[in-house]
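Obj.: predict assembly geometry.
Materials: sequence records (below).
Method: joint structure prediction, all chains together.
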Amino acid sequence: MVNLWNLIILNPMLNGLVALSSLLPEAVEFGLAIIILTVVVRLILMPLTLRQLSSTKALQSMQPKIQELQKKYGRDKRKLQQEMAKIYKGAGVNPAGCIWPMLIQFPVWIALYQSIMRALATAPENLLDLSRHLYSWQIVNQAIPLNSYFLGLNLGQQSSSAGIGGLILAILVGATMWVQQKMTTAPSGDPKQQSQSGMMLLMMPLMFGIFALMFPSGLALYWLASNVIGVVTQYFIGGGWGYLVSSSHT
Amino acid sequence: MSYEEILYLGSMDGKIMAISPSARDQELNFPSLPDGEWSFAFTMPSKGVVCGSSSVSIVIYGTPVVANGLVCIGIYNGKVLMINPSARSQNLPFPQGRSGEWSYPRTDDVIEPIVGSPVVANDTIYVCSSDSRVYALDMTYGDEKWRSAPLDGKLWTTPLVDGDTIYVSTFDGHIYALSINDGSLLPWVFEAKVGFVSPPEMYKGTMFVGSFDRNLYAVKVGDDKPLWEFTGGNWFWATPVVSEDIVYAGCLDGKLYAISSETGEELWRFDAGSGIVSSPVVADDLLVVTCESGNVYLVNVLTGEGRRIKNPDDPQSADRPSIDASIRGHLCVLDGVVYIGAQDNRLYAVDIDRGKIDWKFPLAVE
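Observations (raw structure tokens):
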């Protein structure tokens, strides 16, 4: 199973990342390669992302009706589920529609994450491990070991040890994640639900901000690039800043 | 590394240990002080965001060297340590300056990670650091004699000292020659298209060094072009060994290649089955070859025919590797026994004549 994963997903992505680094200016090779590969992967997965966004949007537009049903059949769970299923069916919406595209994307994210961590080869055993995944292509061999510096940051170093640059990167990871989530999180009429979603809105960016501090900066750069692409996609597909602006007006 | 019947090594859990083969053979309690055994755990305050303990143990990749009865080691945390065995066996606070102990840098400061081993020559310790410099340290006091200008990228290598010159192979594909007196760059630099993965080995004025392009290069000092290059199936991670005009090069493709040092012609190859990370060692007419799967082989230096050491816990099994753990560390031969530190943090003693594992000793002992 591990071999199959390496053969089909990880190795092509890892070698692509290294080969891409080889083509870029040495001073920024790996940092830029991470950003470009993140963009390419997001573009390839765009149909799934669009499907996920449209499902999410459809579900959100149905929220007032759902809340009405919750008030009406709050105690009768079975009836509530039946009525909700009727509404979904009537609108032609599958609640799982926003989960499946996300689940399919997960292996790709994991492979991208593994590729970055392996390519960074921060310790000798990592470099040794890298040798098992690389193709014998000249373009790949030429790039090894990669220059891990990008805009003054050592991408192989824990962000928290990378000084002010690492801190800024972690803050940017948290901030862009917050923006991305805020754009899609509809305000709820139910105070309890509103409080829960408000908590989630803060917790996830905070958590990823801390992760960004604890992991190598290269991974934080990938999260940042991924978040920015997510925000841009959401802006153009979702038609503007969404709930980020509308909620600040209310 | 062995010195006066004692083995010096770094354990997987970050200890520097002195081990007496005699005491281990008799299964005495560790450390057996009369036999010169001790264990020393050097810790440093942690940096950055960590969970749990605020101090971290050291990581050791290089091999200790012994100089004037003292043990020198470079650690991944970015320090060079000079250790007095007597002070360590008494468990005195480190460093005992009067006993010749020191650490470089002296304060809590560190240089960048040290991966290669230190080298001793002319009362000086030479060591490469990931800050791309070579350091020369006074052996007695640990004072910095000089540090070179930054070379190329991280230097995860061991410097090669030959006469008045230090040779350093780099990840960026250079072999630099430095003056042993002040670390200044000498005029000759060898430049390859691809980086070097292993420290070089010198034999009769020619260096043998593995590269990321899966080639083993033979480079004559002073020449701009390699004498020859030999292509393997993966990187030549381990430093090759040379004996009687034959280069024995272990490759991550699982093969041990015997190559003529003069022509680069392949004489024979031995298939170890999995990547060879540790440099083989020559013991009389045999080569001891280890690989990542944990197998240990005794290979005839002339014919390339080899036999596998059986696992002592399962001698009938043809599949079970000699050692139930990957082998990546340096091998050390002493009195007909090869000592192997495996990834299960155990030390194994392999009797070459009898072709069997005599004993194993867990290094994670208190």
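Conclusions so far: Helices of chain B lie at 21-25, 85-89.
To do: check interface contacts against the pulldown list.
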